[in-house]
Specification:
The protein is mainly beta and 283 residues long. Helices cover 13% and strands 42% of the residues. The protein is built from three helices and 18 strands. It has a five-stranded antiparallel β-sheet, with no helix packed on it. Strands 9, 11, 14, 15 and 16 form a five-stranded antiparallel β-sheet that branches. A five-stranded mixed β-sheet has the order 10-18-17-12-13, with no helix packed on it. A hairpin with a 2-residue loop joins β3 and β4. The protein is rod-shaped, with a radius of gyration of 34 Å. The protein starts with a helix and ends with a helix.
Length: 283
């Protein structure tokens, strides 16, 4: 075969669309959506949006992994597209899953891990794109309790007495961040008492934060509504309790935290009260 003819045939083959398309084909993952901190018991949707470019480039498979466990496959070339596999903490809702998303049912702490989406184009090039993201399932505070040492309950205090209460959030993972408010306002750090956490064999944490202050501070119209909020990730739970001040004991006390216009007794008020008591004591 003449050399010119051979070169012509080789050039024609290399420049044909079917050959050039191998180099033109690409797979790109446009977006990987894996929730950072879903809550224990949630159904979670994982999304892997992708794009295939190039001449006649079709999808071969989309594979989802949690660590070494491949739990879902979508095959673009089969009639039976969806294949799901069960592992510890992994239950796929197959009927709700697609080529770009997979739904996990009732996630738990065991579901946590590094999730990988792998998108592969059809052969012979089998172009592939991979993205990963970590998901950590949290256990939010299901119950928050406020404990008062006073009896009866709800408690009533006299001016000058110390209020002592604790807030406990049980069985969270990771530990809960606890905050106090009184009548909707944050408390000062000097009124907060911190205790050590308790962690059980499952790694779930019970946390307690105390609150101490002396009446009549923080009271408004003889009422202090204490609110404790425990937060884990984006999930919070709160508890509130009303604490009362004995009106008789608070008659000589007012505090800047009370209603507008209430102030500590003025010097003139104290002098007047003193004079009144002296006059009453005269024979």
């Amino acid at each position: 075969m003449p050399l010119k003819l051979l070169l012509y045939l080789i050039t024609t083959i290399l420049l044909s669309p079917d050959v050039r398309s191998y180099d033109d084909k690409t797979v790109v993952i446009k977006e990987l959506v894996v929730p950072d901190n879903p809550s224990d018991g949630d159904d979670v949707t994982l999304t892997c949006r992708f794009e295939l470019t190039g001449y006649n480039h079709r999808l071969y498979t989309v594979n989802w992994w949690r660590g070494k466990d491949q739990f879902y496959t979508y095959k673009g070339t089969n009639y039976d597209h969806k294949h799901a596999y069960t592992f510890r903490g992994i239950q796929v809702k197959k009927e709700e899953s697609t080529d770009e998303s997979v739904v996990l049912k009732n996630v738990s702490e065991d579901t946590s891990g590094v999730f990988k989406c792998e998108v592969m184009g059809e052969g012979p090039s089998f172009r592939t794109a991979v993205e990963t993201k970590t998901m950590t399932v949290i256990v939010p505070p299901k119950q928050v309790e406020i404990h008062s040492w006073a009896n009866p309950d709800p408690p009533t205090y006299r001016a000058g007495e110390t209020i002592q209460i604790n807030c406990t959030a049980r069985g969270t993972k990771p530990r809960a961040h606890i905050t106090w408010k009184i009548n909707g306002r944050p408390v000062r750090d000097l009124n907060v008492v911190r205790y050590a956490d308790f962690e059980d064999h499952r790694g779930r944490v019970t946390s307690t934060l105390g609150l101490r202050w002396m009446a009549p501070e923080y009271f408004h119209n003889n009422l202090a509504r204490v609110t404790c909020t425990a937060t884990v990730g984006d999930h919070s739970n709160a508890a509130s309790k009303d604490i009362y001040l004995d009106p008789a004991s608070s008659a000589a006390f007012n505090h800047p935290y009370g209603s507008a216009g209430h102030h500590l007794p003025t010097t003139w008020t104290i002098v007047s009260l003193t004079f009144f008591h002296v006059v009453r004591s005269l024979p």
